[in-house]
Amino acid sequence: VDLFRNLMKSAFVVERQPCMPMHPDRPLVIKTGVQFTKSEFPELNYQLKIKVCIDKSRKFNILGTNTKVMNMEESNNGSLSAEFKHLTLREQRCGNGGRTNSDASLIVTEELHLITFETEVYHQGLKIDLETHSLPVVVISNICQMPNAWASILWYNMLTNHPKNVNFYTKPPVGTWDQVAEVLSWQAVCKLLRLPDHLGQVLQGKHGWQRLLLWVWLDNIIDLVKKYILALWNEGYIMGFISKERERALLNPKPPGTFLLRFSESSKEGGITFTWVEKDISGKTQMQSVEPYTKQQLNNMSFADIIMGYKIMDATNILVSPLVYLYPDIPKDEAFGKYCRPEAAPEPEMGGDSTSTIQPYLKTKFICVTPTNSGNTSDLFPMSPRTLDSLMHNEVEANPSHLEAGNTDWFEERKRGVERNSYY
Amino acid sequence: VDLFRNLMKSAFVVERQPCMPMHPDRPLVIKTGVQFTKSEFPELNYQLKIKVCIDKSRKFNILGTNTKVMNMEESNNGSLSAEFKHLTLREQRCGNGGRTNSDASLIVTEELHLITFETEVYHQGLKIDLETHSLPVVVISNICQMPNAWASILWYNMLTNHPKNVNFYTKPPVGTWDQVAEVLSWQAVCKLLRLPDHLGQVLQGKHGWQRLLLWVWLDNIIDLVKKYILALWNEGYIMGFISKERERALLNPKPPGTFLLRFSESSKEGGITFTWVEKDISGKTQMQSVEPYTKQQLNNMSFADIIMGYKIMDATNILVSPLVYLYPDIPKDEAFGKYCRPEAAPEPEMGGDSTSTIQPYLKTKFICVTPTNSGNTSDLFPMSPRTLDSLMHNEVEANPSHLEAGNTDWFEERKRGVERNSYY
DNA sequence: ACAGTTTCCCGTAAATGC
DNA sequence: TGCATTTACGGGAAACTG
């Protein structure tokens, strides 16, 4: 019996990372009604029937075949394994009473649950109940809860090695910025983010709200990068997180028309913008940024197309593009031309005779323009760019710089880093 | 007993129109996994338990409480009624064999099913099985099948009064254009469409493919109108279906800058475009149309915004708007100004101090431009507008006009019609 | 391999519960 | 009443299945 118990302990050790991938990047977060999987279960060398369960703090039901007999696989180490697929979780909404939340003090994305795997072993007439469990998981009901849920998972695994402390968030510890950075580095894209120090200060707060606010912002940016601008990101074209002071220091010595791409820090949704150099009439160097583009807008138009088509409209309705060189000195066309949408081929007609007739429609394209005031038509710009720029300048001065001296060329450094790690 | 049977017959009469609304506009189409309802069931004046079933041609299961005891309601006519809510259909995918389709010759959207309502009545010691059924319904598994399914429902109800001819589509009859027009008039928006005669010719074909092709096109336009341009439609601003010849006849005497809005007939997805008058250098009157805007594009930008912002960019990058008067002579601003998106208010900052600092970003807006060739930057327009226009003109000449003489001002007529019927 | 059909599941909107 | 959470389901894409 002792022999068994020892074997158990080692066999049932809970691996740290991959447990229940729902979204492959977000283990340990399970959405109700969405399938999840538990696979590659190292086991004892016996014919065992395993049953999957979940803790009873809330009434969840596991749908799907939740028991399985393990097979001897010709797998890696010759141990037994079982794979649970097509499992879904559904909360049991009892007819009327029975409130859902076991601990009403916790919000649902900080409520931790355990998924257990039970089996029975008979050896020399003795019945032994074996049981192991997953790391704590967070159960969500809508994907919009994912950022918060994932923040909880990261925070937990960052600050504890306890395998089943489901009450972690009743008094969560405070983490340091270095720990946060390390956790973020677990994620592929985040490895490249190189978050600036000033963001870490936000995390020094107690826990909860501020922490989550930052995380939601970061997560939205990660999402934006992965979905919309990954190619540009991998090219190293996107400066990403950069303080306004550093931006100014980089762009100031550059010729007008030089621009860089950076994330916006001003909105919770996360956005990306570009800042360029220009000289005003007096010859003074100015920086200009456009209002950040959000996922919503990138859904319809690639960022490369936006950059290539961006124009300033002056008072006489003449369009000029203020973007010429991507920092440090890459011509715009060279950098983004290959990522622009190819010209749409003419579509076939609905009737039969699509061969001879040519589409009699004028082709159009959407471009993004900044109208200056005094334009003759419906211009939406109540304030001149000069005024805005001076305001921006003032704001920059109001925030003293935190620039660290050593990091001379972050852009070049990160680009080399990208070339080493090709995650996508 | 005869008394009962007679009562049954009248009590169980199947109402023609509203039967199982899933999409409120599309009765008799049920999507698996989506709830549907059967309500207000006129019944005999006895305590009856009703059970909902579906025919067994495919293995569908009805989820939800499919039996119900009828209550005496203080309803309209004092008859009994039962309401079935939260019913969903799920196809039973047997483990391996058992092909789904009962009649493989029919596509799934032409496969008709009956939903039956069964009950038992005991009277004077005699047990009588009562049963009624819905009109034939179409079961779909994805919303993208809705246009075809709805076409089947319309076609069926247009051409037969049979209450349960589930084999209708094994040899469907041919319908006339008048019948189609009548069926289309059952739908709110379609009442206003006033389809031109030449579309009816397509429907004279055998059945099936061509019929569906037309329907899908019409349905997409109906959808586009309802979702994106209903306000403009109700104002009577949208000409809608108009032949190129009639368009030319209407616009030709008008001053340059006059434009009208019409649907595109060139793409199955359905789109909307505008055509305007201009004079070329020689003083000759020309018509121009832009490539039609689809739902995809209207998702991001309202049609009013597109119209107000539309510009032609000439070789020197100067923008001019070719749109001045909506046909017949409404100034563009007057017609569409109130439907343009209001200027975005500046968003609060993420930190706390959102009171004093002003967003230092340049506001932008997307506009739709038609670049002419010889522009200096990435222009996508390989053919001059003149060339295109002459091609268009040729195509128009190639299709002889079908204009009927009596219909002098369709626009005004339809606008009055709109004012009479305010469906939305 | 392929096309018709279904499943999967995000993300917006609405409903629901506390 | 308001907010937190869940449900509903359209729609795009992947998976399925003869």
Automatic annotation (TrEMBL), chains A, B:
It is found in: Cytoplasm; Nucleus. It comes from the Eukaryota. Residues 233-323 form the SH2 domain. Belongs to the transcription factor STAT family. This is SH2 domain-containing protein. It comes from Dissostichus mawsoni.
